[in-house]
Each structure stands twice: as structure tokens, then as C-alpha cells.
Amino acid sequence: MNKRYSNGEITILWQPKLCQHAGVCVRMLPNVYRPTESPWVRMELASTRELIEQVAKCPSGALSIVENKKE
User: Fold this and answer.
1) Cα distance between residue 24 and residue 57, in whole Å
2) Which among 1, 5, 39, 55 is least surrounded, fewest beta carbons within 10 Å?
3) pLDDT, the chain, mean
């Protein structure tokens, strides 16, 4: 089951079946990605730019970005 996390500007899509648990997300943004908590992604603790840069480095492609439509 895929999970979605949004900060209003973007949505991060996490596909757990693709995740290799390389830890890149946790190492880059440890305040945002907290695997022992629920929800484990706290997007409000980073800027949109930081989130986009981090997701781009996900080696498995388990994390991706969807830009939210502006009204």
C-alpha cells in the first residue's frame, strides 16, 4: 500500500515495496524521516526545496514527488 505525505505544495509518494531501506532519506533529513514514529514522514520540518532535493537522491525510487495543483 502506497503512502502519501503532503505539505500543501508537494506530495511525497512512498512505495514501500520498492524501498531498499538504504537510509539516504534519514541521513539527509533526519528531522523529517523518523522510521520509528508514525507517521514516519514529517514534511513540515523541511522546506519544499530540501524535500525535492532529498527525494531526487532516493536510490530505489521508492520516494517520488507529486506537485500539488494550485487553485
Assistant:
1) 7
2) 1
3) 94
